[in-house]
Amino acid sequence: MRFVSLFALPLLMVSASPALAKGCIRGAAAGGVAGHYVGKGHAVMGAMAGCVAAHHYYAKQARAQKAARTHG
After folding, report:
1. For residue 4, is it within any domain?
2. In this structure, are residues 26 and 33 in contact, taking their beta carbons and an 8 Å threshold?
3. What are the boundaries of the signal sequence (predicted)?
């Protein structure tokens, strides 16, 4: 059951805004690799953290671009 809940947050974030899914996938890949090198069992947590961080970054970037279009 815990395994299912580990993937619930990234999946919800991806489904909420499909345009930013690429950021989540990139972040999850980088976080998974980094977590793998940290130690046993950290790859999944790294992938989750990477997905959340990249999603946040791309959402922030999209908001800035949208604001620049409306004000410029």
Report:
1. no
2. no
3. 1-21
In a domain, 56, yes or no: yes
Q: How far is CA 13 from CA 26, 34, 59, 68, in A?
A: 14, 21, 11, 24
Domain total in the chain: 1
Distances 26 to 5, 36, 70, 72 between C-alpha atoms, Å: 21, 16, 29, 30
Q: How far apart are the first and last CA of the chain?
A: 49
Closest CA to 6 of 58, 35, 39, 67: 35
pLDDT digits (tens, 9 = 90+) for 49-64: 999 899 888 888 888 9
